[in-house]
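Q: My labmate handed me this sequence with no annotations at all. I'd like to see what the chain might look like in three dimensions before we decide whether it's worth expressing. Could you predict it?
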Amino acid sequence: MLDGTNLYALDIGGVSFVKACGGPCTEGCVTLAWIGEGFWALGDSKRPDAEPLRFTSEELAVAGIDPARFGLKI
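A: Here is what I predict for the chain of 74 residues:
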């Protein structure tokens, strides 16, 4: 079981990212995907080839990022 210290070991090749925009989606939007129990990948729609950052649910909460805004449940 992962404890949040090795999130980059998770294979995220088949996950589906959901986009949330703070304004017009002509600008960059944040993408979020659930990658495991309590683990998330956060990407940037302007840089789809960049490696997404990975976070625990607790880290997302501290950063003020709510998966519900993306239509996702914790």
